[in-house]
Fold:
Amino acid sequence: MVERAKKEIKTYVLITLGTIMLTAGVYFFKIPNGFATGGVSGIGTILGKITPHFSAGSWIMVINVFLLLIGFAFLGKQNGVRTVYCSMLFSLLTYVMEFIAPLSGPLTDQPLLELVYAMLLTAFGSAIIFNAGASSGGTDIAALILKKYTSLDVGKALLAIDFLVAASTFFVFDIKAGLFSMAGLFAKAFLVDSIIDNINSCKYFVVITDKPDEINEYITGELHHSSTFTPAESGYAHTGKVMIHTVCKRMEAIRLRRYIKALDPHAFIIITTTSEIIGRGFRSI
Structure:
């Protein structure tokens, strides 16, 4: 029970950190420059420009609350407590920032620099949130509804919506904001997945050695992972060998590699990078 509570607290700390990064990217860099790269933040940025008496932060809050209610109506509990927490925290932080740190324009006169920070902060924030098993809500909820009730390709439908949002900045703001928004849209498509892969990256070891028991003892006793043995034969000397298969986290991989080379300098080690490890000690389905 205590371990479960600690894990849940850690998850919400990560979600909060990711949401703060997401909010910073949207509020300080996207909204002042008119970078509408899709999603609720993009729609809020455009509506905030059209309705000067109703800010972008206010629109983001209204739209997110509306979509959450729609989500509960059509999806029920599938909407998830974590997603509700993240969505409301993002909306609230964006709204509150308008009073704590009001902005009358971009922070700098370098729009490309601001686009880079907008994309990096929102991509890192979103990746942390997704990796913690949540989402910032918004158009993700619309995607789940489409997936449940239609045969539409959800990915293509969301991309089309984001494209329309980004394209509208040509008319609501100007050509420069439109071009930057389109560039940001395409960058976003690659950044989030790339960052998630890096966060989850693990190392897959294949070790051919004469000392499998000692290596296995280190893997199970020190790294708390398991391993699989496969009998092997040297093609050169035709001597018996053992092939050990195991997977570990990135920092553990450094320790394991050092240990193997110190124990058996003649061991043959193959190390590959993977981000999809499903099983005990890694990710559950």
User: Anything to note?
Assistant: The first helix runs from residue 2 to 33. The chain has two domains: 2-199, 202-274. The two ends are 21 Å apart (CA to CA). Residues 44 and 153 are 25 Å apart (CA to CA).
